[in-house]
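Slack export, channel: ligand-projects

TW: morning all. Re-posting the request from yesterday since it got buried. We need the structure predicted with the small molecule present, not the apo form. The ligand is S-adenosylmethionine; the SMILES is in the block with the sequence. No rush, but it would help planning for next week.
GE: picking it up
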Amino acid sequence: MTVLDLGCGPGFFTLEMARLVGPAGRVTAADLQQGMLAKAEQKLAAAGLTDRASFHLCGAGAIGLPPAQRFDFALVFYMLHEVPAALRFLREVRSLLKPGGRALVAEPKWHVTRAAFQAAIGLMKQAGFVVLSQPPIRFSRAVVLG
Ligand SMILES: C[S@@+](CC[C@H](N)C(=O)[O-])C[C@H]1O[C@@H](n2cnc3c(N)ncnc32)[C@H](O)[C@@H]1O
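GE: finished. pasting the full token output, ligand included:
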């Protein structure tokens, strides 16, 4: 699989996804902060997995990955609430998925109320996503989108 870790932060999930995709898979870690990408890159290097990883600095107003790049899976973990223009962002996420691709959006319960998450689900639907499931993730509100 080719997977995208959006708002990767220091790369906690980037590393695990790099392990999961195996030698034939690829993971792209993307973040607004160069410092976070550097930390993620260090983690991958320490694990000897940089050959299956790439790192992308997002713009403030757009993810900005090349339009030809498409992913089987996008992880949007604990970052959507930090994005001011969430609908535009979600539309861009959707455009980055291959047909049949999936996204997992998770938000921290202590920071994002049930009502706020419901409103975010409304935006996900407006962006063209279908909610496939709401997996239980500890401390989180989460949806799998297709
Ligand atoms: C709370 S951290 C979560 C990090 C990681 N996903 C995790 O769960 O360990 C949120 C990250 O999202 C990034 N971020 C916020 N807005 C962003 C945007 N519009 N595009 C890309 N990254 C963004 C921040 O720089 C930060 O590294």
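GE: first-pass observations. DSSP finds four helices and seven strands in the chain. Residues 7-9, 12-13, 30-33, 36, 58, 77-79, 82-83 surround S-adenosylmethionine (CB under 6 Å).
TW: perfect, thank you
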